Amino acid sequence: MKKIQLLLLTFLVALSVKAQKSPEEFLGYPLGERFTPHHRVVAYFEHLAASLPNVELVYYGETYENRPLFVALVSSPANMTNIENIRLDNLKRTGMVEGSPSSQVALNWMQYNVHGNEAVATEAAMMTFWQIADPNNAQSKEWTQNQVLILDPCANPDGRERYTSWYGQKQNNRLQPDPQSVEHFEPWPGGRPNHYLMDLNRDWAWQTQKETEERLKLYHEWMPHLFVDFHEQGINEPFYFAPAAPPLHEQLSPFQHEFQEIFGRNTARYFDENSWDYFTKERFDLLYPAYGDTYPMYNGAIGMTIEQGGSGRAGLGMLNALGDTVTLKDRIIHQHTAGISAIEVTAKNASRLTDEFAKYFKSNSANPRAKYKSFVIKGDQNAGRVKALLALLDKNKIQYGFAGNRSGIKGLDYMTGKSVTFSTTEKDIIVNSYQPKSVLTQVLFEPQATLQDSITYDITSWALPLAYGVQAYALESRLDAPKGFEKEPFIANALDGKPLAYISPWNATQDAKFLAALLREGIRVRVTNYAFETGGQSYPAGSLLIHRNGNQYKKDFDKIVVDLANEMEISLKTSTTGYVDKGKDFGSSDVRTIKAPKVALLGGSGTSSLNFGELWYFFEQELDYPVSIIEADMLGRMDLYGYDVVIMPSSYGSYLSDTNFKKVMDWVKAGGKLIAIENALMAFADKEGFDLSKFDTEEEKKAAEKAEKEIQNVERLEPYQERERMGISTTAAGAVYELKLDETHPLAFGMGGKFYTLKNNGSRYAYLNNGVNAGIIQNNDAYRFGYIGSKIKPRMAQSMVYGVENQGRGHIVYMVDNPMFRSFWESGKLLMANAIFLVGQ
């Protein structure tokens, strides 16, 4: 009987192996002949998982457009049988799970197509995974003995489908490599970002998008040793692979440097054998913590970026500058080869990878290497923002505790940039680096990243306390949280009687979400222009009043208000009288009713799709407030008088025709509110009829022009190869400045009198002469952290960053810097909410 069962099992396994198919057999065409729709990619991996015993799919979420997100696992049959133990063993190496590992299997995670229009990656993923999963491949069997391959074939399905669907409509029947053919000009907004036009490759640490958040949950369940991120670059670039370019963060370990070199030389061997061009150690650095290579690096892995020349313009094939046709088939085989190289070096170095991974966590958690070892967040101030910051720490598995009452502590005050002595209370939070997430903690909280080279690929400052606008300190010494302190649970508001008014705070994004919810429900809400005191409590300007008068006919008024507040964990106060002890009574004209604004957001060709996406996401996913999308070139056909607010995102030049610009300004003068961000300000600067200018006087303008000419004369004499370095002297890459805010103006309500702006451009505007300078850089002492070019830094003093100009019965809100940057600069969201809901009411 046992022999019959064994023969039957052997037959079934053989039948299963025979049933599985290569990508070409399954899809019905060779890879590279066309772009594969995402649902067919999913079907292929499901086919392999169903027909091969050593393949498993793990679904970890879905996109905003409801496409599945998954990884495919493949290893030896023995490893797959023991896969849960292998996973837990690895977490034991990190200290996130107690115990000692009993296995030594390397975990190699390879991610493809995080930028949707870099669509070669998913095609290469199918080729690579098939080669490793193919039971007839002896080499692959050897490589999977001590390695688990975790492969994500498409990290951005929505972006990929946006690109491939468009390309399928425009491509020629016969290969057309002519760069001027329409298939090589992808329209706005392009397939690079996700549904909300956010760049998923710059979202890792912040996890603002659901794709990133869901992927990071799975990532933390595995904590891989190697993470390879596949991309494409411009068509005239050949191929890039590690080692990375400087600046390389000082927290990287010697082995992380060494393994990049091991991979680079192994990959170069393959490319040299085929006479393929490539470059290394250029352009792509390891600094900004939210990339698909740096975030794994700061979590103990070897993070690496792969860049194939081509990208969305290349399509199935396009001529490069040399007149050679760069085909999809060639791009696939290049990325496939780099992937196979990564799998090979992982197999050859599996023991070292696991040993060094364990060493990384043990040494760093015991002896953090950065200057600052502990961080204290004041929890008794601005509770809403602190809560949001702690939620981010939770997402990143960063541990923290509560400080207790202590005094005489010395540390760097993030807000002043100076060393001070301070005290803590039981509400304050301690985050120290003596924990498994030691390096990530130090990187995210570091006030200033150390730059080996000023030429960087991204921003240079991201200190969480400044991004969230909370009072915090960085300590050079260890400060532990005493045991026994736990998070204070939210105490729900009671539905108790019928107070005259509910009073709600206004100092965090959650407060704006609460306001939006009330307005959606038809609840009338008021805002206080002045601080006031009542019932022994003090309330700042900008506090929200939800008064019974005006809502008396609203069915279930009290229940709606209290239920929404409890849902969003907003602590309400109440008053039984409109007669205040100090300030303006509730019936004063300075306690204004907030009209629920009808908002239009401009998009389309010429607008920054990233800034547009940040705003779109803010309305839909954070405020949950309706917004109409209008493409700028359609303005001529639109009736603007149905809107109260129009938002102009940043741009790549003027995207309003003269006719449409006049139409918008007529609407503003009739009472509309226009919010212009970053480069959109160029439509108004130094134009007749507007108060916005780059210089206060003509003499100042001439002096600046003379200085610029002298700089240009010097640059002309610089050696050619140094001109890029000279060029960055007039740019900003995430420099943080302290702005002085006019607390009496609604644009600054709830901000506490100051705002830390992230400056990513060199634009400088003079104070408004007739408008309100709501947020200004007073002097050069306002600079805090991050890179800003030496030639523009002195000019930033006495400049306007956020201001409001009256035009007829309407207003223009000027935002020189983007307060919504990548949706992670949390404190800027309240500034935007002020502009939308409170200015001009």
Automatic annotation (TrEMBL):
Keywords: Hydrolase, Metalloprotease, Protease, Signal, Zinc. It holds the Pfam family Peptidase_M14. InterPro entries: Class_I_gatase-like (IPR029062), Peptidase_M14 (IPR000834). Residues 1-19 form the signal peptide. GO terms for cellular component: extracellular space. GO terms for biological process: proteolysis. Gene3D superfamilies: 3.40.50.880, Zn peptidases. Its cofactor is Zn(2+). Residues 35-325 form the Peptidase M14 domain. It comes from the Bacteria. GO terms for molecular function: metallocarboxypeptidase activity; zinc ion binding. Belongs to the peptidase M14 family. This is Peptidase. It comes from Rhodonellum psychrophilum GCM71 = DSM 17998.
